[in-house]
Amino acid sequence: MLTKDFIGLISNASGLSKKETEQLLTTMNAIVRENLMAGKAIQLQGLGALEIKERNERVIVHPRTGERTIVPSKNQLVFRPVANLKDELKKI
Amino acid sequence: MEEKLSWTELRRALAARAGVSEKQAGAFLNAMQAQLVEALKSDKQVKINGLGTFKLQAVAPRKSVNVTTGEEILIEGYNKLAFTPEAGVKELIESGKAESSEPAAASVPTDPIQKLGAQAEEIVDILGELGQSPVEAPEEPKAPEMPEPEPVFIPEPEPKPEPAFIPEPSFVREPEPMPEPPKKKKSHFLRDTLICLVILLMLLAGGYFFLRTELTTIIMSFIKPDETEIVVPVAADTIAVAMPEEEVIVEEPIESASEVEEVASEPKPESKPKAKAKKNNTLTEDQILKEFLEASGELAGPTAEYPDLITTEPMHQDSRLSWMSKRFYGTKAYWPYLYDANKDIISNPNDIEVGTPIRVPRLTEAQRDTTSAEFARIKQEAEAACMK
Fold it and tell me: Which of B24, B96, B204, B330 sits CB 3.0–4.6 Å from B20 for a disulfide?
């Protein structure tokens, strides 16, 4: 499902206009990004948490040349669904 | 990441930013949450621009074993909620957070490597205590050390020798086949022109020869039927000339023919091959080349260093000095002598033009000694020439 359809769904459920919904959604995304950049995780009620995880630096070996290179550490955005949702979606 | 932006905080921030009431913001967020779940159930995938994609991924059922009873059990398939951040967001997070995590990253890198080294040492120590030979010790610790931190380490020792090996054979081979392509073109052209030349030569000679015999027979026939007085003196003369000529047919006409044609047959002591060629009307490439070379006076004679030649042979297509050496001396080893005897003609032993006359010197006993300093010098010289 694309963003457009999703906005339509929210609009129907909340009674807000599509335009308002779209604006709210983009604003929410902006807030989420800003907070993530500030080092805060985002708790989305009933859904889960968006948080940043640090991936450690690691050594990889080229299988053919045996060359070793270091993959620098980096941060990843991960989503951890809440247990309820996880269970709910396990069987559909 | 201890701090968390709660649902309430998000709602407030959203209301403030978007300029709507908190109630409205709350309604939106709740609707979004509920609809996201519904959409995931129906569509299995929801894309939110500016954030990422939520996706339900199916995990296939798999077999497992009950650890306590050893019974085989089937773990049923299920769905897993996965989130893939949008490319822009991902980059933002990766780049933006890199600074803050740098100090932490700096301390991390050496850790695993140090661990490996420490473990290896430990294992060496343990093995040493057990009284194992020191030769085995450095090799063995690697194996146990690998699976733990980096299973990918295992292929490391094997692939290394391979890439080092591969370039070698190809490098050795290269110089030989390289000069071939240009040779082929040259030789074809040369051969064609040579064949044309020889055919022309033979036609001329044949024509001359034919005319001569024809003339005599015409004259002969003239004489026989009516021996008129007017003709007799002329006929007698021609007969006298013609008769001996016919007997010496093989040698005479050739000499005269070649003289007439001026293709120069002066340095040609043996007229046999030519006579033969005329009779059979077939010529091997060798003979053509030889004739041509001899005729054009390019034939390489004996030199001061190699006064005694076995023969002089034109370079064949696809031939090598080493092969000629094998043919004449029974071993490829003496090819440097072939180069040495012909170095006035040959610049690079690997790139000799087809048809180049090669002197094949008769080797003395001293020269046949491959351990002599003289041979080493010649060989070195010849090999250096190959590099040109």
Answer: B24
Neighbours of B154 (CB within 10 A): 14
Residue in B18, B36, B39 nearest the CB of A23: B18
B-chain CB neighbours of A26 within 8 Å are 49-50
Q: Give the model's pLDDT for residue B165.
A: 44
For residue A6, give the nearest of B46, B97, B156 by CB distance.
Answer: B46
Maximum CA pair distance of chain B? 151
Which residue, among B12, B93, B165, would best test binding to A if mutated, counting the most A CBs under 10 Å from its CB? B93
| Of A16, A35, A57, Cβ closest to residue B5 | A35
Residue B222: pLDDT band with limits 50, 70, 90: low
Query: Distance between alpha carbon A40 and the CA centroid of its chain, in Å?
Result: 13
Residue A54 phi, psi dihedral angles, 5° rounding: -90, 130
Instruction: Round to whole Å and give the CA distance between B3 and B168.
Output: 61
CB B352 within 8 A of CB B315: yes
Single pTM value for the model: 0.40
Answer for the pair B72, B63: CB distance below 8 angstroms, yes or no: yes
CATH of B7-59+78-96, one of 3.30.2350.10, 1.10.20.10, 4.10.520.10, 3.30.565.10: 4.10.520.10
CA B259/CA B271 separation, integer angstroms: 13
**How does the average pLDDT of chain B come out, rounded?**
69
Pairing of strands B78-85, B72-75: unpaired
CATH number (3.40.50.261, 3.40.50.2300, 3.40.50.300, 4.10.520.10) of A41-92 reads 4.10.520.10
Burial (0-12, 13-18, 19+ Cβ within 10 Å), A69: exposed
Range with the poorest average pLDDT among A59-73, B41-55, B65-79, B180-194: B180-194
Burial of B124 (0-12, 13-18, 19+ CB in 10 A): middle
CB of B161 within 8 Å of any CB in chain A? no
Residue with tokens 């194992």: B132
Give the tens place of pLDDT for each residue, B82-95: 999 999 888 888 87
Task: State pLDDT tens for residues B292-329.
Answer: 556 555 556 667 777 777 888 788 777 788 888 888 88
